[in-house]
What does this fold into?
Amino acid sequence: MQNSPTTRNDQIRVAVVGATGLAGQQFLAALSGHPRFHVTTLAASTRSAGKSYAEAIRHSTGQLGWYANEPLDPTFADIKITPANDLDLSRIDLVFTAIESEPARELEPKYAAECPVISTASAFRYEDDVPLLLPGINMEQAVLLDRQRERRGWKGFISPNPNCTAVGLAITLAPLHRAFGVRRVHMVSLQAVSGAGRSPGVIALDVVDNVIPFIPKEEEKVAAETRKVLGVLDGDRIAPADVGISVTCTRIGVIEGHTEAVHVELAKDVSADDISAAWREHGADFLAAGYHSAPDRLIHVHDDPFRPQVRLDRDWGNGMTTVVGRLRRDETVPNGWKYVLVSHNTKMGAATGCVLVAEHLVAAGYVKPRR
Ligand SMILES: NC(=O)c1ccc[n+]([C@@H]2O[C@H](COP(=O)([O-])OP(=O)(O)OC[C@H]3O[C@@H](n4cnc5c(N)ncnc54)[C@H](OP(=O)(O)O)[C@@H]3O)[C@@H](O)[C@H]2O)c1
It folds into this structure.
């Protein structure tokens, strides 16, 4: 298996910053028992600093606020939370950050000056020397991490994942764009409440029995980031794909998993079989590396028109497989097609996706033990 350590010195010492939040908890689920990444530091805001991890996520009612399906690893429960602005970077090889954009803008460059940072935050996603690595799609863009190091004088780098709603969209569009060309995309999302985090989160009274038709700043992020993920290296930057992307993002009363209804206009006349084959074969080279957190396949295609359903399909491949279905022609536009996808927002869309990128960056030599 890739990423298996031969000696203790091969282990990568990892800090998770924002460990108490929803994405942070999924990092802990993905890192529990990991063959190569050894969690040594858990960090969060000053609200949690100094408490044990279990104390920090316990509600005032006494209930443990742990939201991953996997149990909390008891070896993490007793770790004392470090304040995020006080990490001992000399004892850390890799930082995973799961914090909001505002603290990330201040903290991530401080960490990156010393060691690699892989982030779920949007703070640096739009900078020219920052790729949005998505497993199996654009890993060749990791070369920009070297430019970052040179240009910014850092020992490390910042590698953010794309927005969780852009993740499923980009994963399903990438093989179509490569094989046939994508001209225009319309997408309507039905997004899970976990996407809003623990704080501020979504009030149950607002979202149960309801659809909230607006998620601030989400639609701009999804369009710009999907274009960047589908883009190509152009010298020291990524030239975004020339694809028109128009989206409407809504929030619904589902805990995990984003559903997206996608209309796509292709550049070529192809068949449903051509599209399904492009999806089914997608990522085979990347998956052949056998990374610890990788699923068996990046995309699963349903023929049953009643699938994908978020409750039944979000956990395919431990939440790392994007599930598509309802593929049919859109007769109102030339070369138009429609489909529905389900993507796990806190696993492939956040923490486990970042861990998989990290596994690839270890294999590619961008992340290594520093002792
Ligand atoms: N949830 C998702 O589906 C998802 C998907 C993709 C990307 N993301 C991104 O991941 C990041 C975290 O999201 P989330 O949903 O996990 O949020 P969350 O549940 O609200 O958790 C936020 C985390 O950040 C910590 N924090 C807050 N203020 C801080 C500060 N000033 N300094 C250091 N740490 C601070 C919190 O610690 P305390 O507990 O001490 O307050 C907590 O650990 C965001 O950038 C979000 O956009 C989330």
Remarks:
- Residues 302 and 325 are 5 Å apart (CA to CA).
- The pocket of NAP is lined by residues 18-24, 44-45, 47-48, 84, 98-101, 103, 120-121, 164, 194-195, 197-199, 345-346, 349-350 (CB under 6 Å).
- DSSP finds twelve helices and 15 strands in the chain.
- The chain has two domains: 8-161+351-363, 164-343.
